[in-house]
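FORM 7B: Structural annotation worksheet

SECTION A. Query
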Amino acid sequence: MESVRAQRLQPGVGTLRSLRAGLAGASAGPPPPPPPPLPPALGLQGPAALSQPPPQPGAGPPAVLREAVEAVVRSFAKHTQGYGRVNVVEALQEFWQMKQSRGAELRNGALVVYEMVPSSSPPYVCYVTLPGGSCFGSFQFCPTKAEARRSAAKIALMNSVFNEHPSRRITDEFIEKSVSEALASFNGNREEADNPNTGIGAFRFMLESNKGKSMLEFQELMTVFQLLHWNGSLKAMRERQCSRQEVLAHYSHRALDDDIRNQMATDWVNRERGHPGALSRELAATERELEEARLAGRELRFHKEKKDILLLAAGQLGGAPPPGC
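SECTION B. Predicted structure
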């Protein structure tokens, strides 16, 4: 029975077909409600840039974003290294090593990982993944690979420092405000917020389960649910008779891993075979979203994971990805 339950909670959409026979004899209750709302925008690009609209692809970052980043980097340098030019790549690594030494729970250690986008000419693009999983990218026009690395480190350092502020913690006040905004957005009522079987109730449950955590930590958790929603996995789990509580309990403690990515990639292989062109269209849309978010200085993991999953699917199909991917 436990093995069947584990299968029902698999992220792969295709798993549903093989389980329907086993569920045919089960008592079918009313269909579960739609998935919980995605988290509100958490404003991860810094206080001065929150009101800025995302720039058009190819455009430079807003001046206010550059100024905010430079101000935080200078402030961090002043308090940790004294005045003078700061090596942001070293400073970012030292910041996370300092957090680890002070007791922060980092499952994969304090290593900051950089990834250059292959290119033979500028502008160069670099992504940086923080120990918790959050991802940021170079947000300026970078004529060299070294400058792209520094640009990515700057925005990541700013977010890392800003994330330590008490206002970035999930508190009772923040939960009430977020739930109220969700109710207004979805035209819900207060009873829905208190019912864990509703989407907004599940959203509240997740916030309360993560009380005391920072916004970046919560965003890292929500990335898994965003991917499950995007891939159609949540819908498939409902059809397998998985309760919302089962899904939340299972994936709240499961890290995003290669098994999840491979199952989602397989789903996209199947979609492409059933509807030729679906994969390339989704990849092109994801590329645009990733570019806009990167230039706006936003947290990128959801967009980047989508792209990586789609490229993995393209590789399984044996086709070359579109130019620039």
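SECTION C. Observations
The CA atoms of residues 57 and 292 lie 6 Å apart. The mean pLDDT is 79.

SECTION D. Sign-off
Analyst initials: ____
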